[in-house]
Amino acid sequence: MGDLPARCARIAESRPFTIGIFGVILANAVVLGLETYDGVIEDAGGLLTVLNEVFLAIFVVELVIRITAFAPRPQDFFRSGWNVFDFVVIGASFVPGLRDNSTLLRLVRLARIVRVVRLLPDLRVLVTAVGRSLPGVASLGVLTVLLLYVYGIGGWLIFDTHDPERYGTVGDAMLTLFVMLTLENLPQNIDMGLELSGWTVLYFLSFTLIAAFLLFNLLIGVVINSLEEAREIEFRREQAARRELAAATEDVEDDRRVVLLDHVHDLRLALERIEHEAKELAAERPDRVRPRSGS
Q1: What is the SS3 assignment for 182?
Q2: Which of 52, 61, 80 is nearest to 11 (CA)?
């Protein structure tokens, strides 16, 4: 029994096991979609119910294997938020009374499909990046609302009587400017402003430059920075899992692989720092960085 956790860990981390669970999740998604068609329910409703029970049984076996891999400390399984999510989604299917409520049961089955995020590392990174970018995005949202309000008041003062449909109140003006963030109605607004005065072009151009370009570029910067942080978090999480797996076995190659990945990661970070410092030096002293002439 002492080798059981190590075997379960190898199974849980193996590529065929991951691909198999990924296929089951996709099949579960297909069955869930078929249940939205009345004709399919009439012809094969019983089969779909059996398939859902089979999928649930497979997910339970998968969860047992992954929890057993953490023996003799199964509580360590719940250190990962993804593991907690999997446990809650699968365990919810056994809550008393839930199976009698078709709406809640479908929601639980729908949540199982979201588990595919855990199986795809790149998708996990994106989801983590979205979560880490929320504080920065929220700050940009406040700044955007403030900008819309300031320009909305300005638009109301300028175009209140000329275009009351779009600038009759500060709310209408903010809504018009919000749509203008996509640049969709910019030409129409400029034409409307030119009917009043040529100086109104400055109003629309300044708003476009500040809101549509500057704020969007700041948003992209926040997301990219969060993406880099998420990649670092995901790498450390995977390395921690590899170390636990290597410690549970006597194979020296597993330990060497973990150390080698650490060295490669540190080397990549060092190269990125060197590249960043070289760009800063080139920007500060461009006269010292000149291409060599050919011989």
Answers
A1: coil
A2: 61
Q: What is the model's pLDDT at position 292? A: 52
Whether residue 15 is found in the same domain as residue 63: yes
Residues 182-208 have pLDDT tens digits of 888 888 888 888 888 888 889 998 998
Q: Omega before 135 cis (within 30°)?
A: no
Kindly state whether residues 44 and 142 are assigned to the same domain.
no
How many other CB atoms are there within 10 angstroms of residue 217's CB atom? 10
Q: 0.70 exceeded by the pTM? A: no
- Kindly state whether residue 283 falls inside one of the protein's structural domains: no
Q: Report the CATH number that the domain containing residue 48 is assigned in CATH.
A: 1.20.120.350
198 neighbors 164 (Cβ within 8 angstroms): no
The reported pLDDT for the residue numbered 132 is 81
DSSP 93: G
Rg (CA), the chain: 28
**pLDDT at 216 (0 to 100):** 81
Query: Which residue, of 56, 88, 119, is where some domain finishes?
Result: 119
Q: Dihedral through CA 198, CA 204, CA 207, CA 211, nearest 10?
A: -150
Please check the confidence at residue 290 and state whether its pLDDT lies above 70: no
Report which of 2, 19, 4 is spatially closest to residue 64, judged by C-alpha positions: 4
Considering the domain architecture, whether residues 115 and 175 belong to the same structural domain is answered as no
pLDDT (average), residues 265-270: 79
| Structural domain harbouring 164 | 123-249
Q: Which amino acid is at 9?
A: A
- Does some domain include residue 18? yes
The letter for the amino acid at 5 is P
Count: domains in the chain: 2
Best mean pLDDT range from 6-10, 42-46, 147-151: 147-151
Find the length of the chain. Answer: 295
